[in-house]
Write a structure and sequence with these properties.
The chain is an alpha+beta fold. The protein contains 15 helices and 4 strands. The chain has 2 domains: 92 residues, no CATH class; 208 residues, MetI-like (MetI-like fold), CATH 1.10.3720.10. The protein is elongated.
Length: 374
């Protein structure tokens, strides 16, 4: 007989080492450039909004009565004579009432310059709620004003309000998202794995919840909210109830996946080995379609943000004086204000960027978690 020898070096993975599952995952994820950029943007945004009091040049409720509906401030390095300055600065803004249109018109006074500085003293605040500080990341010297995104109808800095609004929209919805994700996995898991009467009960329950009209349900929930609740408590309550009602889509997908996987050989082997039902579902079945769960989780975050925006825009969610991305868009309902002050739509642009970033991130995570993609 002819002996066959196997060269162990030729059968070894390229590079001489075996990659772990996590190393393979991140290696595939880094190939998706848009997903990497989106992940960096999302992490940066979460970090910024966590310290919004420090980054924002003004308090979100501080009114600048001399700068109502002021346009975004232009940052420049060149003065009126065309000379270049290493340190950026802004010019003073003057406004006067147009007697024909009855609108305030702002003009730049190039004779007055205010230099931009880092770590300037301003309004006192409590960082993270318990660290007293009065230092802001940037600002202008003297009596100058800087409005990176303009001001609203009450003269409040829109950039500062966007930072605080993004924090509310990004974090408050995570509570309801965690509840909805957990319920979807639980009910979908027991429905698909056990079948029979359990499956029948869960499916009838999901059909009932999916048949409820969304907008009337939101209006009913808004009417049932106790009047003494704070704005944050209102949205926590509404997002929680919406999460309890909205887990049905994920549950049905999980059920369908488990129905196709529960008869696989490795699942039957786990049953024969005496593995508990809970471990079979969590350790053997759910990882089989982890890529879908990851995508669902990343896409559910912008859905919660859009839900908050829709509720607040309609007056059913957070209401002023609470600050969120949804409440910042309330002024855009006035078409006259919007025509003369288009910068009031800047929060809407931030919402679009956040949703796109989460979509690209979910796409990259799906490709990295899919074992059939090289």
């Amino acid at each position: 007989m002819t002996s066959i020898t196997i060269d162990s070096e030729s059968s070894a993975p390229q590079g001489g080492r075996v990659l772990s599952r996590s190393q393979i995952f991140w290696s595939k994820f880094y190939r998706h450039k848009l997903a990497v950029v989106s992940l960096g943007f999302i992490l940066f945004l979460y970090a910024i909004v966590l310290i919004a009091e420090f980054v924002a040049p003004y308090d979100p409720f501080q009114r600048h009565t001399d700068h109502l509906l002021a346009p975004p401030t232009a940052i420049t390095f060149f003065d009126a004579d065309g000379d270049f300055h290493l340190r950026p600065f802004v010019h003073a803004l003057k406004n006067e009432l147009n007697r024909e249109t009855f609108q305030r018109e702002y003009m730049v006074d190039t004779s007055v310059r205010y230099k931009i500085s880092l770590f300037v003293e301003g309004e006192p605040y409590n960082l993270f709620g318990f660290i007293p500080m009065d230092t802001h990341f940037f600002g202008v010297e003297g009596d100058g004003k800087i409005f990176l995104a303009g001001t609203d109808t009450l003269g409040r800095d829109l950039f500062s309000r966007m930072l605080f609004g993004a924090r509310t929209s990004l974090f408050v919805g995570l509570f309801g998202l965690a509840i909805g994700f957990g319920l979807g996995l639980f009910f979908g898991g027991i429905s698909g794995y056990f079948g029979g009467a359990v499956d029948n009960f869960v499916q009838r329950l999901t059909e009932f919840l999916q048949s409820l009209p969304t907008l009337p349900l939101w209006m009913a929930l808004a009417a049932l909210v106790p009047p003494h609740w704070t704005p944050i408590q209102v949205y926590f309550g509404i997002s929680t109830i919406l999460a309890v009602v909205g887990w049905t889509t994920l549950a049905r997908v999980v059920r369908g996946k488990l129905l196709s996987l529960r008869e696989e050989d490795y699942v039957m082997a786990a049953k024969v080995s005496g593995v508990s039902e809970a471990k079979i579902i969590t350790n053997h079945l759910l990882p089989g379609f982890m890529s879908y769960l990851i995508v669902h989780l990343t896409l559910a975050v912008p859905q919660m943000i859009l839900g908050e925006v829709a509720l607040s825009f309609l007056g059913l969610g957070l209401r002023p004086p609470a600050v969120s991305l949804g409440t910042l868009l309330i002024d855009s309902q006035n078409i006259q204000t919007l025509v003369f002050s288009p910068w009031l739509l800047v929060p809407g642009g931030l919402i679009i960027i956040i949703v796109i970033a989460f979509s690209f991130l979910g796409d990259g995570l799906r490709d990295a978690a899919d074992p059939y993609r090289s």
